[in-house]
């Protein structure tokens, strides 16, 4: 009788595992569709908007579900080096540009 009891328990566990597997497969499929949808939407935003979506705060690294800056950039399709680039402003050219704008207004 112990063999039949063990077999029944095994079958019950197998049924539970199959149900859980089916539920998780459905969840993975849903998340994959959502990811593909969002990836298409991100392309339409442009690189400057995507750069603003990256969270550079180091305090967010302590939460268990946070992404590193490198992972965020990879998901958003942004070069990490471009996040820190600050264009230099040529003050002389800016003054001339402002003067020309004032003249033609």
Structural class based on helices, strands and sheet pairing: mainly alpha
Enumerate how many helices there are, as a single number: 4
Q: What overall form do the CA principal axes indicate? A: rod-shaped
- Give helix % range: 55-70%
Protein name: Transposase
Task: Chart the SSEs and their pairings.
Elements (H helix, E strand, L loop, with lengths): L1 H44 L1 H7 L15 H8 L14 H13 L2
Describe the structure in brief.
The chain is mainly α. Helices cover 69% and strands 0% of the residues.
Description:
- With 105 residues, the chain is mainly α.
- It has two domains: 1-45; 48-105, no CATH class.
- Helix content is 69%, strand content 0%.
- It has four helices and no strands.
- It has helices spanning 2-45, 47-53, 69-76, 91-103.
- It is rod-shaped.
List keywords for this structure.
105 residues; 2 domains; mainly alpha; Transposase; rod-shaped
